[in-house]
Each structure stands twice: as structure tokens, then as C-alpha cells.
Amino acid sequence: MLEIKNLHVSVEGNEILKGIDLDVGPGEIHAIMGPNGSGKSTLSHVIAGRDGYEITGGRIIFKGEDLTGLMPEERAAKGLFLAFQYPVEIPGVANTTFLKEALNSIHRYHGEDELDALQFVKMMRKKTEELGISDDMLKRAVNVGFSGGEKKRNEILQMAVLNPCLAILDETDSGLDIDALKIVSEGVNKLRSPDRSMLIITHYQRLLDYIVPDKVHVLAHGIIQRTGDKKLALELEEKGYAEFDGAAA
Amino acid sequence: MANAASTPITFMPDFDAERPGLPGAGLSWLKTLRQDGIERFNGLGRPTPKQESWKYTRLKPLEDTKFQPVTDEDGMAVLDHVPSLLPNPGGRPRLVFVNGRIRPSFWIEGDLPKGVHLEELRDVLVNAPDWAEEHLGQLTGGDTQALVQLNTAMMDTGFVLRVEPGVVVEQPIEVVFIGGLTNQPVAYFPRNLIVLGEGAQATVVKYHAGLGVGAYFANAVTEVNLGPGARLNHYKVQAETRDATHLSMVHARVAKDATYDSFTLSIGGRLSRNDVSVRLEGPGAHAGVNGAYLMRGSEHCDNTTEIEHLAPHTSCREIFKGVLDDQSRAVFQGRIVVHKDARGTNGHQLCKTLLLATGAEIDVKPELEIYADDVKCSHGATTGQIDETALFYLRSRGIPEALARNLLVQSFLGEALEEIASDNIREAFTNKVLHWLPAACFLSEEWRGE
After folding, report:
1. In chain A, how many domains are there?
2. What is the CATH number of the domain that holds A71?
3. Is the pTM above the cut of 0.95?
């Protein structure tokens, strides 16, 4: 599904990622863990195509195609989704309008018919029911006045509507209390499917109690230092990241 | 003193030549009013940057054009449709002026309640000259704005709305001023008068629509007089042609517990200036003076407001938002004066501008003058660019960049447009904004509007 080969990325001349290799198969869930400043968020932004990052080497292959020259909206249309660590507030634009514009943009990209108002409402009703999200959230402006938990649930709702084959969850657990974390994790688990892979970026192990990964990678100093299964996350929880502190010094 | 600063006027139609043909030529009081106007105008001269309130908006380029009086032919210019802001299935009241001439065949009288009088200025001068004498020029006589005096001298067209006490007009009244489609540059001078009696309510939507190409000069003055407890919603879209000059001035006088609520959306014109000046004369009087401006190319738009609090417990609220692209320029000057007796006054002013290009420029000048105690007055001004994180957020959901930018511009303007209380009118104004935006064709159906 996603294959990253020897990826080097710089920001304003500083190399942040120094040769990342990653292979996420269909339906797999991989966790990327690491201390602050290890390059975790850079990796997620680069995969999604954000401006301001210079790829100095390597490739990002998604469903057999090199993504590196594509714009963020093209990557989204091809089935990539990034759940933001800090979802952005957009006053004056209703959540439902935003979702409809997004979905119809993707339909247009593939030369498919747009959903009309009725089809869209029907589809939304189904998705909100499945995820246990109230209609109220759809009418409100995108993320405006949402609690931390609501913002993250809104990310999950967007994921459900856009139906990506690869979802990257960037520090989805940050700023959530344990109840909100459970609700968000339930939403993610409902969206698990053999056709959908996920990349979970997190600092802490606790999210992985609820979303059990197939593989865990430790990212520090811009490279993957270790790869293991879920036991690796538990080990990190116990020992911390001290072991990797001097790795690239 | 005024003479010292005066600049010879050569670009306007000649007053003496035009005088005999102007409306109400037989009325001696009007003759005096016009004469006083032209003398004051000649004394003051064209505004120059030496005057504080004209520092950022230059009228000198106007002198390159010799504006002619409107001819009958200009007034009868052929239109393939009447531009209208509001959908009009039920025959809402609507007046249409073409190049400053009323076009009776487009006049929809609508279903106005008893006690509402909507007429052309020329007719009022014939049918109710005494009433006109009492109200016309009442708020503009001593004005030191040269352009107001020019209008007083030259006023040749316009509408008069009179609403008797206690009468509530539910339907919005639309007045369309069409410019353009003339063979040579013309100048016209609408003078509008709105007088609401005690407890009366009305909504007036003015649409200045430029058609075709070509330069013209619209110099409009509206006088508003609101009795105790009255409410006027006074909304305007300025969408003149790219070569047009639009200078408009509103003078409003607001009695006890009355509300003057305005919104000005500017989306056209080489040079436009909207002056709104409001006197809050009785306790509980309120002014809402809001607007949005969207400029591109080398367009220039100036919003200058002055709100005078003359009585206790008066309030005002001003929200202006602008979007500037290319090398366009905008000016916002907001003056709030709280006079000595106006204790317990509440004022709020906000001006935010989004610059879409590095060549665009905004000059903002808030001025608060407070001479009373126990006053709450705040003002704020910001200038910024499209938020890159928000742009990435939208694009990461599959929304193409052009559409994402449009959504963010609309999001930005929303805070100002929300000040329009009526859903229908807010939607009509929002549609105008959407049509201004580039690449609107990428929008889904309901965003495209009519």
C-alpha cells in the first residue's frame, strides 16, 4: 500500500529525515513512535504533500505510484488521508459544506458524478449513525468551538466520509482525556478493514492499548531505529526513549 | 481659507448650462439651495490629499476625463436584462435608474402598505414641494465635503421614500442604479431621501450595477431621517464597471431608540468611496455601519465612516472586512465621536483585511474622540494573508487549491456578512461575493447561486 524508500527530507536546509524505509501492506496498522523532535510530524506532512519540505532523496510509493510530485489534493483523491494533530478551525463554513466540497472534489477528480444534496444527506446520516456522532456537529462551522475530543471525532468522521485506503493519524491522542481517547479509538477501529491501512503517529503507548498495531517502529533522529510488534510499544512505555537519545549523535 | 485650497473644476458638466433643465427649476428655495451648493463647492474645490480625510484617496485622475451631462439617449440605453440583487417572483417593489434617469417601464410598484410613499425625486418636487423643502438638504447644508455640495447643486435624479409613523414595510425595496452603456463619459448626481416616521420600519437595498465598459462618474448623496423608535436597514452593493468612479455619501440622523443599520459591499469600480456619517441624537439610538470590499486589478475603494454620539446610552457597531488582490488598494477611516453628554455609550469597531497579493495595500485609520465618562469603546484592525495551515487542511481533504482559497476567503468575509440580519439579503450578498471569487466554476451546485 505504502512503500517509503530511503526518504531524505530537509526544512530550510536542515535535514530532518535521514533515510526512512517503511513498508505498510494492505489492511495493516503500523505505529510510528518517537520522542519530540524525532521527525514524526514531518514524515506525516511529507506523505500528505505539505509545502515547505524539500525531498532531497528517496521515494514515497503509494499503490504503486510515486507521490512525490503530486499536490495534496491529488494525494487525497488517490486515497490518502491525514488526521491532523491540531485540526484547523474554519469559521463561516459549515462542516457539512466542507465535507460535501471535499467528497465532490474527489469525485470530480475521478470523473465521477457529484452527489446531489439528497444523496449526500443520506450518506452522511449513515456515517454519523455508524460512528455515533450527532447531526449538530455537521451544522456547525468546521471545528469552531469544538472541544479537543470533538475535533478529533470530526477527523474520524471525515475519514469515514472520504473512505481512504491509507489513513495517517498524526498524534491523534494528544490533548485527549481517557474518555475521549476511547471514543476516538472506537471510531478508528470501526474503520479498520482489509482494504485500509493506517499509520499511527504517537508519542505515547496508551493509544495503542485501544488501536492494536501490526508493527511498531521507533523513529529518532530522522531514522527508524527499531521495528517490532506491539510489545515494542510496551517496552518503550517502561524504558522511555533514553536508549535512542545518542543514536545519531 | 477654503478658497486658498481650491482647485479649478474643469471635469464636471457646467452648472450654469445645466441649471434650467434640472428637476424643480421653478422652485425658488431649491434655486437658492443649488446656488449655495455650487458656491460652496467652488470655494472648497476638488478634495486633495492635503485634507486629512482625503489623504489616501486621490481624485486628481478624474481631471483627465471630461464628464458630460447625461442625454436622453443615455437614459434609454438598451438593456437585455435588468440586473437585480433579489429574486423577484412576487413582484417586490423595485425602482430602476439607467445612467441617472428613471426607467418607468422597469418600475415595479409592488404591494406597499398604506402610508408608504416611494417616488422619484423629480415627482416629489412637483407633487409635494413643501414637504421637499422641509426635508431636502436638511442634513447636508453646512457640510464641508465638497462632493456633497456638488451633489446639492447638481442633483438630477434619485428616489424619495417616506414611511408614515407606525408603518412597517415587510418587503425589501430594491433600487437599481445602472451605469455604463454610454457613448461618452457621463456624470450623474442622484439624491435620495429616506424619512421614516416614529416607529416605522423599512429595508432599502441599493444596487449600483455597471454594465458594459466605459468611464462614468456617479456622485450620490442619501439623506436619512429616522424618527423615534424607527428602524432602517440600508444595504448597498457597489458593482460599477472597471472604469467607473463612484463617490457616495450617506447622512443619517437617528432619533431616540431608533436604529440605522447599513451594509456596503463594494466589488467594482476604478475608484469608489463610501462615506457614511451618522448622528445618534436621542438616547437608545443605534447605528450598525458594516461593509465588505473585494478589489482586484488597480481598483481603489475607500470606506470612511463617522459616527457621532450626541445622547446618552447610544451605541454603534462597525464591522468591515476586505479582500485585496493584485495591486488594488483600500482605505478604511472610522471616526467615532462621543460628545460630552453621551455617557453610557457603547461602541465597537473592527476592520480586518486579507491581502491576496504582495502588491495590494490597505490604509486603516481608526479615530476615537471621547469627551464623556462611562463610555465603552473598542476598535481593532488587522491585516493578514491566507492561513497556510488552513489551506493545507482543506487541500489534504481533496479540495483543489483554487476552491480551498475561495472557501477561506468566504470564511473570512463571513464575520462581516453575518451582520446582515435578513437571510434572503445576506444570501444575495454572499452570492455576489461568490461570483467575485476566481474559479467559481469549481464550486458545487449550491455555491454557484443564480
Report:
1. 1
2. 3.40.50.300
3. no
